[in-house]
């Protein structure tokens, strides 16, 4: 239901056109629109800001109806903002990284809050969603580490909240669990959740997905650093990219034996027939990989900072992009394949520490000439 209104929003956006240049009125920057509206735009803002309903420029009045893209983004000295009753849209990343912002009023006039609007407002403690809001984008409240509750006006037709957790009105879609919550139980009505629902929650210790949930979205549990074990139910059919990135405490993935898409062995997550290694738990100190794998997925070992050695079985044909990024302790990578394998992008992207790659002797010049491993200090040794 949340996404049915996207066409309406696109129409609202396309129905306005900007005048030639931005203007500054009382130390606030605006883009003036030909339809008589004004958008607050990026500037250097600090302290306590009050945005008026109307501004006057060259003897013409404009109604302030939107906080534009990244208008207050990365304003570390911004303490408070009073928004006008004329406001209809809070734009993408409008208040992102406003680290000193503790509270903000969202007027009843607001109908749209775009993606990441309050991303990483680390001191924001509570939010009230008014009765007229019809759209809330992804990751709007992600990484708000002190956020304890999101309350929704009971008259709102599109959203609701229970125990401070934000849902769509029918409680079928989980939108956001506040980052201060360490425990959360899915209501039986929930069938899906958004990518920003848990992202950045360093307090949550366990997640028990209900059987009705079929998809784990991208970045779903990124930086959930207290999660230790993750169970993937039988009905899950897809897992988005970087869904478990920087989950440093996860030691094991447990896949339901009836799942027809995924499997696990030694706590490592694979596709069903174990030909693709999808994600190694980041708390692992050593790994024993199954012999059947043919592909290492992108970011599969990313942030496995305790691994010192990885040996890729002989059937491996491909290593995905950034597969070993941030594996700071990794000293040795053994590639047992007798043929050159396909390496997608820089699998050690950003690494400066020395790493030794052990391959069949005949392949050493091939790998050296391709320079596909992209490591500043890279040694090759022959398999014995």
How far apart are the first and last residues' alpha carbons, in Å?
Answer: 60 Å
Percent range of helical residues: under 10%
Structural category is: mainly beta
Shape: elongated
CATH topology of the domain at 1-161: Leucine-rich repeat, LRR (right-handed beta-alpha superhelix)
Q: How is this structure best described in words?
A:
The chain starts with 5 loop residues before the first helix and ends with a strand. By secondary structure, the protein is mainly β. It has helices at 6-14, 364-370, and strands at residues 18-25, 28-33, 37-40, 47-50, 54-57, 60-67, 78-82, 89-90, 112-113, 126-129, 135-136, 149-152, 159-162, 165-168, 173-176, 192-193, 215-216, 229-232, 238-239, 252-255, 262-265, 268-271, 276-279, 295-296, 309-312, 318-319, 332-335, 342-343, 355-359, 378-382. The model is unreliable at 2-18 (pLDDT under 50). It is 4% helix and 30% strand.
Write the layout of secondary structure elements.
Elements: H1 6-14, E1 18-25, E2 28-33, E3 37-40, E4 47-50, E5 54-57, E6 60-67, E7 78-82, E8 89-90, E9 112-113, E10 126-129, E11 135-136, E12 149-152, E13 159-162, E14 165-168, E15 173-176, E16 192-193, E17 215-216, E18 229-232, E19 238-239, E20 252-255, E21 262-265, E22 268-271, E23 276-279, E24 295-296, E25 309-312, E26 318-319, E27 332-335, E28 342-343, E29 355-359, H2 364-370, E30 378-382
Parallel strand pairs: 3-6, 4-7, 6-8, 8-9, 9-11, 10-12, 15-16, 17-19, 18-20, 23-24, 24-26, 25-27, 26-28, 27-29, 29-30
Antiparallel strand pairs: 1-2, 2-3, 5-6, 13-14, 14-15, 21-22, 22-23
């Amino acid at each position: 239901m949340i996404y049915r209104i996207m066409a309406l929003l696109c129409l609202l956006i396309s129905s306005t056109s900007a005048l030639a240049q931005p203007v500054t009125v009382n130390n606030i920057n605006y883009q003036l629109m030909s339809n008589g509206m004004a958008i607050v735009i990026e500037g250097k803002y600090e302290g306590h800001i009050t945005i008026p309903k109307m501004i006057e420029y060259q003897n013409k009045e404009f109604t302030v109806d939107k906080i534009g893209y990244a208008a207050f983004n990365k304003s570390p000295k911004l303490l408070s903002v009073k928004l006008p009753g004329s406001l209809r849209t809070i734009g993408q990343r409008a208040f992102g990284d406003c680290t000193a912002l503790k509270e903000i009023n969202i007027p009843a006039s607001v109908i749209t809050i775009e993606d990441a609007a309050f991303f990483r407002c680390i001191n924001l403690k509570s939010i009230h969603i008014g009765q007229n809001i019809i759209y809330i984008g992804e990751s709007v409240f992600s990484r708000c580490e002190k956020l304890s509750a999101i309350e929704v006006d009971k008259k709102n037709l599109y959203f609701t909240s229970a125990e401070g957790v934000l849902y769509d009105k029918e409680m079928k879609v989980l939108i956001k669990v506040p980052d201060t919550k360490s425990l959360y139980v899915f209501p039986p009505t929930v069938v899906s959740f958004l990518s920003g629902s848990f992202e950045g929650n360093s307090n949550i210790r366990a997640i028990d997905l209900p059987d009705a949930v079929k998809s784990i979205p991208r970045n779903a549990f990124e930086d959930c650093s207290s999660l230790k074990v993750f169970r993937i139910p039988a009905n899950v059919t897809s897992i988005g990219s970087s869904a478990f990135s920087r989950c440093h405490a996860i030691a094991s993935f447990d896949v339901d034996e009836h799942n027809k898409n995924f499997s696990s062995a030694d706590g490592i997550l694979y596709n069903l027939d174990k030909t693709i290694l999808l994600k190694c738990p980041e708390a692992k100190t050593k790994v024993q990989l199954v012999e059947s794998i043919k592909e290492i997925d992108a970011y599969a070992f990313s942030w496995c900072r305790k691994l010192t050695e990885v040996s890729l079985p002989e059937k491996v044909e491909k290593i995905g992009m950034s597969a070993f990024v941030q594996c700071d302790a990794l000293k040795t990578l053994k590639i047992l394949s007798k043929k050159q394998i396909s390496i997608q992008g820089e699998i050690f992207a950003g690494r400066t520490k020395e790493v030794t790659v052990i391959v069949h002797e005949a392949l050493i010049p091939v790998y050296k000439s391709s320079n596909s491993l992209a490591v500043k200090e890279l040694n090759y040794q022959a398999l014995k």
